[in-house]
Design brief:
Largest sheet: 2 strands, parallel
Distance between the termini: 32 Å
Strand content: 5-15%
Order of helices and strands: HEHEHH
Helix content: 40-55%
Number of strands: 2
């Protein structure tokens, strides 16, 4: 759901997934996801927001985001 930056900062998530707007934000470096460079822009929000047969694409995208090692 939607909530304010204050709530986001208070919850201090390890991963942030951004849909529909720029990754440029004013999140402080104290947020774990920012500190660990784990803020991700979702390239096709429809895959995540519309249930249906494309759920496999959603699972594959989440797997890539969460588990692929960056070199």
């Amino acid at each position: 759901g939607l909530f304010s930056y204050d709530v986001l900062i208070h919850r201090n998530p390890h991963i942030i997934m951004v849909m529909g707007f720029s990754l440029d934000s004013n999140l402080p470096d104290s947020v774990s996801a920012v500190k660990q460079n784990r803020v991700y822009k979702i390239p096709d929000p429809d895959v995540f927001l519309r249930p249906g047969p494309r759920i496999i694409e959603t699972i594959e995208e989440l797997n890539r985001i969460f588990y692929d090692k960056k070199s």
